[in-house]
Amino acid sequence: MSDVSNAASGAAIAVKGLKKAFGSIEVIRGIDISFPHRERHLIIGPNGAGKTTFFNLLNGQYAPSAGRIEFLDADVTHMPVRQRALLGLGRTFQIASLFQDLSVRDNLSIAAGAPEVAARSGRSGEETVDSALRFSGLDGDRAVRHLSYGEQRRLEIAMGLATAPKLLLLDEPMAGLTQIERGLVAERIVELSASTGILLIEHDLEVALKLADRLTVLHLGQVVAHGAVDAVMDDPFVRKIYLG
User: Fold this and answer.
1) The 25-35 sheet, strands edge to edge
2) Residue 21 parent element (H or E)
3) 22-75 pLDDT, tens digit each
């Protein structure tokens, strides 16, 4: 199998001995891995591999059953979601979570509103919102409920940018999009990675593999391969998982 990295000091985020069980069912079964700063890192795996549970542990939605999580070298294992977000850990979800009755600009303003965002970005809230609005390519005055699904996905990523994250977790940002919309979102992700690290879960491998600097494969709650994209995809065990 490809190399599995241990948690290391200086990583954007690192975990050691991470486990999560729901009752008697162990979904994450002891993960040791670290992700460097400013890297587009793709996480893949079959359904039930534990990908979204892993993200939920990283951003604090779930408490681990065992193990340690470090973000920017700080122990955040038992830190709540909001506190991790204030440190610069951003997250989007499989289903867009937006304020439907508010405008695009208002949604971005809410995301950029915390004082910690201005401190991280070195810009005023208005400047941050304007930058995120340009990034989205959307009309700031439009109500979210009038946006297409693909436009809402672009807005959600722009809201992630508006929080000035040090690391952004993107959970299937291309789910349900047309081929053209996937291309637009892919362009936005590449732009975003110039200023922040990206951890990406995505089932559309045709698009996602072209985006990734490195690749991690989860299977039954464990890391089974981790490294350069071509090397991981050529791994016999990974090929067996996906091709049978």
Assistant:
1) 25-35, 13-22, 66-71, 74-75
2) strand 13-22
3) 999 999 999 999 999 889 999 999 989 999 999 999 999 999 999 999 999 999
Q: Does residue 203 lie within any of the structural domains?
A: no
Question: Does pTM top 0.70 for this prediction?
Answer: yes
State how far the Cα of 71 lies from the Cα of 143, in Å rounded to an integer.
35
Q: Which helix (H) or strand (E) holds 219?
A: strand 214-219
Please tell me the distance from the alpha carbon of residue 147 to that of residue 155, in angstroms, as a whole number: 9
The dihedral through the CA atoms of 106, 201, 65, 8 has a sign that is negative
Residue 49 neighbours by CB distance under 10 Å: 23
> 146: domain CATH number?
1.10.8
Residue 138's domain spans which residues? 98-162
Number of domains in the chain: 1
